[in-house]
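Table S7 (text form). Paired inputs.
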Amino acid sequence: MRRLAASILALALLVLSAAPAFGAVDQGKLNEIKDLTQQMYSIKTQIINKEVEAGILDKTKAEKIKNAMQERQQKFEQDIDKGEFHGFGHKKGCGRKHSNDSPTPQKTE
């Protein structure tokens, strides 16, 4: 019985000591991701500026979009600096707010 208890205790200690190694994040790789996202942010900003120049996008709406992008980029960079990475996945709805009050198509008879 003591052998079994000692084996279980040893296994538990082994698992607990290995857990930090599995969860370790490579800060160098995170910095590479940070650099790439900065490039992506810069390119997206350039695209928005070109859309304004082409008359595709309203200037006030473009500023609103760029401000939101800048906030997301800053939050992302702060997380990276803390050694955290939460991914790029979009939340349900990709940030668009849907209203249940929108009119539904009516059947015409």
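Next pair, protein 2 of 2.
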Amino acid sequence: MSPEVYDKRLVNLYSSVLEVTHCPYCNSQKFYRHGRYKYTERYRCCSCKRTFIPSTGTSIHYLKKKVVFIEYAEDIKNRGLDTLRAMCKRLKIAPLTAFDWRHKILASLSPEEFTFGREVICDDLWLRFSRKGRKEVDNPRKHGGKITLADDKNCSKTVSSTDETASMFRLATVGKLREKHLLKVFCGRIKPESKIISSSRNCYLGFVKKMSLNHDDLKVANKTKKAIKINRFIGMNKDLKLWINHKLCGVSTKYLQQYNNFYLFSLFRRFDPLGKYSLNLRFVWRIFTDMENIYRNFITQQTTEVYSVPTKRKWKTTYDYYISSLKMPY
């Protein structure tokens, strides 16, 4: 009998891209080789005694059509995010498959760990609160249109911020933005000597006072030499809003942070779903399968909305995989 032939791209991922540094279940660094599985090595953890392969917990975990997923990931890398219908037509896959694969890839875009510099420009971006994809909900796909101050309670608030070297988009709350939300968003990212350039609304002034930081009003600073940086920052926020409302026809608030991360990575052309950084993240399966609970905790703890109409999809292995609290989407 002739040996089974495997796709060269798939074999290359397992041999050259995927690296085993710790156990995906307990995070232990003590493991040993434990036989083989098809085209790759199998490992066994010395602590929890479980076996795993290099792709366990990653974006290609539990996939039967891994070769088609490689084509799907390369399509996103080259073309960006397209509509699910277009992806299904090009790759001849089912809509639910296209949806799941997209969010597995988006789950690998975890927020980077960094600290802002001396001057931080920040503002909040308003998008309509969306429950797109949830049945038995009135106007679940509502998006776009002119947003006024009267819509304050019905908008998802993304705090956008930038300095000389880094930028960040973080979903803070749904409803009125308060000081506590800003404290959570900027926790560990602001230096004591930093200056905040933002609007003079109470939430920002309270945050600045709490952190004992210097503050400049955004409108006043826009009339100085900093106008170029501020206008570039405002333009970046507008582009993100247009991309979500028009290119994607709205995004569910549940997944909004992941789309924020994708936009930021794409903006600086750093995103490669099949690269070593993205493909070696072993918490992707945990985020993908536990996203509903993560969203529920966000709604109940950080917003004034009422959590309702939960999705019914569940996975038994969700909590088997290790994840650091710093890697949670919200």
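Residues 35 and 42 are 5 Å apart (CA to CA).
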